[in-house]
Amino acid sequence: PIWNWGQPNDVAGMAPNCRIVVSGDDQQLPPVRSMRSTKIDDREMGGSLYAFLKSANAAEFPLEETFRLNAPLASFPERKFYPGRYVSAAPDERLGLKAGWRDDLDLVSRIALDPALPIVVVVHDGPAAATSNPFEPSLAAKLTLELADRVTGAAGPISPADFWSETAAVVSPHRAQNAAIRALMPTVLKADAFVETVDRIQ
Question: At what angle do helices 175-184 and 135-150 cross, to 10 degrees?
Fold first, then answer.
């Protein structure tokens, strides 16, 4: 069996000679559940199975190459969490957009979708909001539609299903905001829309 995090009591009923593969990363978000960790004989108990095995000095085999991020996107986690041991498998990868992709786009969209700018921060100086506000879902849905209309794959334009499985994801902090973003998307993109919170995507 393979666990992602889990808890130590998850293995209580397993055979003595069984094989376990645990995947996890204690530099990322912890499990979304209430836990109380304590140490017993230098073993982490009550927390995640990953933390327990790490405290028992179980063998670890880090995966140090990312296939999801190009070099500009991988640079922050490398500096912050994995100094000298986190690299992109596709450092120069950029979005493929059709010829004339800038046509009919406003300034914000041209900047946000520009393949030469892998990281773009759009600052909205608006009123404070709790779990959702009208401006952000409308902008997210607009940029998503504009990207879907312009992105291309190796064989040309891509289908909506491939757009969500191979190219795009929309991440926002709250489920209410995600629901608002999905509601504003056209029907052709709504069916397979990958719009989630950070913890659900991770």
Answer: 50
